[in-house]
């Protein structure tokens, strides 16, 4: 297994090897040949979403999720299960089912199959809340009882060895959203259900973001005493050089912040990322200026 303090790979020297926090990436439908050259933590890009693993109510399809998990097991690097409950990728049949029972069965099945280091339990509660939230308790007495219930189910199934995370976008760039997010976070923390805070860092939130704003908002989250995990980092630009310049502004503000314990990039191969222009290595293997800078930065900046 991986060290709790220093993350390495068994057969490669990824960018964050030997550092106290990991730099990971997604694994899509197959593992790119150069994946281990760069990364030492992984999530499946889409393979673990509920709509993917249970397209019909009576059976599970774990193939893509297995791919990412098994690669992490082989390389002895952390795996993040993304994710259990997200309103944007739920199976079509869920509308006619008992939502709580169906969700409980999903969680038990996932926990029986995997022993992940991290699980994102609820994704995008502020922007894409689950369609089954009323069956999980709705707003209830806390205002967010459905999230509490989801975390209780996950904690019971996965046990104390897996860290439970919440995740959302539009946080790192918006102090008002930070406060709304903290409302949920503090409820879960008060019930000892939350182990870390995920913040998506997509290009539409970070491309024009000042480093000082990143620092202030991450520190507000870190004041809870919980670790922060930028969970979906990608950056594009008007040109290759522009993309590299944005990386130089955004990445150090995340990497050197002591509240942050690991960063997951969301794709890296040009033409194969979910947002155009966010690749930093061309499909033929040429490293773009952003990757060249990132490699040099991590060689000289140790955390």
UniProtKB/TrEMBL annotation:
Designated name of the protein: Putative glycosyl hydrolase family10
Species this protein is from: uncultured symbiotic protist of Neotermes koshunensis
Residue ranges of every copy of the GH10 domain listed in the record: 28-297
GO molecular function: endo-1,4-beta-xylanase activity
SUPFAM superfamilies in the cross-refs: (Trans)glycosidases
Family membership: Belongs to the glycosyl hydrolase 10 (cellulase F) family.
Signal peptide: 1-18
InterPro entries: GH, GH10, GH10_dom
This protein's UniProt keywords: Carbohydrate metabolism, Hydrolase, Polysaccharide degradation, Signal
Biological process terms in GO annotation: polysaccharide catabolic process
Keyword Hydrolase in annotation: yes
Pfam families: Glyco_hydro_10
Gene3D superfamilies: Glycosidases
């Amino acid at each position: 297994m991986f060290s709790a303090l220093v993350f390495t790979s068994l057969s490669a020297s990824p960018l964050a090897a030997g550092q106290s926090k990991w730099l990971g990436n997604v694994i899509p439908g197959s593992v790119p040949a150069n994946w281990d050259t760069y990364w030492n933590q992984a999530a499946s890009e889409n393979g673990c979403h509920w709509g993917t693993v249970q397209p019909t109510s009576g059976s599970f399809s774990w193939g893509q999720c297995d791919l990412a998990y098994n690669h992490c097991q082989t390389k002895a690097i952390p795996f993040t299960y993304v994710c259990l409950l997200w309103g944007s990728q739920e199976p079509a049949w869920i509308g006619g089912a008992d939502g709580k029972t169906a969700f409980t069965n999903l969680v038990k099945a996932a926990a029986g199959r995997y022993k992940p280091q991290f699980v994102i339990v609820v994704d995008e509660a502020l922007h894409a809340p689950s369609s089954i939230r009323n069956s999980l308790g709705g707003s209830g007495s806390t205002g967010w009882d459905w999230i509490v219930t989801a975390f209780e189910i996950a904690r019971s199934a996965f046990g104390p060895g897996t860290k439970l995370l919440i995740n959302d976008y539009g946080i790192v760039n918006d102090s008002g959203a930070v406060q709304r997010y903290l409302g949920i976070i503090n409820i879960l923390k008060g019930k000892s259900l939350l182990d870390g805070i995920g913040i998506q860092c997509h290009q539409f939130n970070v491309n024009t973001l000042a480093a000082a704003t990143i620092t202030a908002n991450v520190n507000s989250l870190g004041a809870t005493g919980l670790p922060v995990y930028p969970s979906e980092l990608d950056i594009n630009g008007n040109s290759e050089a522009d993309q590299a310049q944005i990386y130089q502004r955004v990445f150090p503000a995340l990497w050197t912040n002591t509240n942050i314990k690991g960063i997951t990039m969301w794709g890296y191969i040009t033409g194969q990322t979910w947002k155009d222009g966010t690749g930093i290595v061309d499909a033929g293997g040429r490293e773009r200026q952003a990757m060249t800078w990132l490699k040099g930065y991590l060689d000289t900046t140790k955390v």
